[in-house]
Design goal:
The complex is a heterodimer. By secondary structure, chain A is mostly helical. Chain A is about 75% helix and about 0% strand. Chain A has helices at about 10-15, 20-35, 35-55. In chain A, helix 2 crosses helix 3 (about 35-55). The longest helix of chain A has 20 residues, at about 35-55. By secondary structure, chain B is mostly helical. Chain B has helices spanning about 5-10, 15-20, 25-45, 50-65, 80-95, 110, 120-125, 130-140, 145-155, 160-165, 170-190.
Chain lengths: ~55, ~190
């Protein structure tokens, strides 16, 4: 649960694995576009990975 | 009746399929634009070679063009059906290479250039790892977590399909995916530290 009272981390994990149905993925993308915390969660994961990869 | 691609874009996959069955190029163009990227990603993850993945996708879409009318919505989504065809073609390719091990290293650019920039997240970064590293990290996970990740990542199955396969609730599947991904991230990061 995050500060705004919702937890989409499981959905984000499924999204990252390409495991959401297209409609669900589109819904999550719309949600993330309007939710700073989820957007940050998505970006943070991506940027952290890219930083680590860049260091290899 | 032939339709323009711009009109076809507004149709759901299930509505496109009968038109593809009638050999409507506008409908097929939209179908390819919509699913070509994910089809390539799955083929590439399975065969591990850029050229072979392109061939696999081409063969799969030619097969769909020829047999689009055979899609049966009672057996699942169009996406799942399409990925099943890609998966089978990819496995056929690996079998045809009997005696020669598939190349296991990923070519980052080959995968990334086929994906929108907005999707450059954990999953894309994961694809930068070699299959060996990812398989090794998966091997460290509890079986219930590695299973759902393998089915999604290497199998191209959706979370609802995986839930049915394993007979567990949807939320459980997604929860296992998240826990597994978090551990993999830790494993791989530690390995490169």
């Amino acid at each position: 649960m995050n500060e705004t009272g919702h937890d989409r981390r499981d959905d984000i994990a499924a999204y990252l694995l390409g495991a959401l149905e297209p409609g669900e993925a589109a819904e999550l993308e719309r949600h993330v576009a309007g939710c700073a915390e989820c957007e940050d969660e998505l970006r943070r994961r991506g940027s952290r990975r890219r930083r680590r990869c860049a260091a290899v | 009746m032939k339709i323009r691609a711009s009109k076809a874009e507004r149709l759901a996959d299930e509505e496109l399929m009968p038109r593809i069955g009638e050999k409507d190029p506008g409908a097929f163009e939209v179908f390819y634009d919509r699913h070509g990227g994910v089809a390539y990603s799955l083929a590439y993850r399975i065969v591990g070679e850029r050229g072979a993945a392109e061939d696999v996708v081409q063969e799969a879409f030619i097969s769909i063009w020829r047999s689009g009318a055979r899609y049966d919505r009672a057996r699942g989504s169009v996406r799942s059906w399409m990925l099943g065809i890609v998966r089978n073609r990819a496995i056929d390719f690996l079998r045809s290479k009997a005696g020669r091990a598939p190349k296991l290293d990923f070519d980052d650019d080959a995968v990334l250039e086929h994906r929108p920039a907005a999707e450059l997240t954990d999953a894309e970064a994961l694809r930068r790892e070699t299959t060996h590293e990812l398989r090794g990290a998966l091997g460290e996970l509890p079986g219930e977590q590695s299973k759902v990740i393998e089915l999604a990542y290497f199998g191209g199955f959706s979370h609802s399909e995986i839930a049915k396969m394993l007979d567990v609730p949807l939320g459980t599947v997604k929860g296992r995916m998240r826990l597994g991904l978090e551990k993999i991230r830790g494993e791989l990061a530690e390995g490169f530290a």
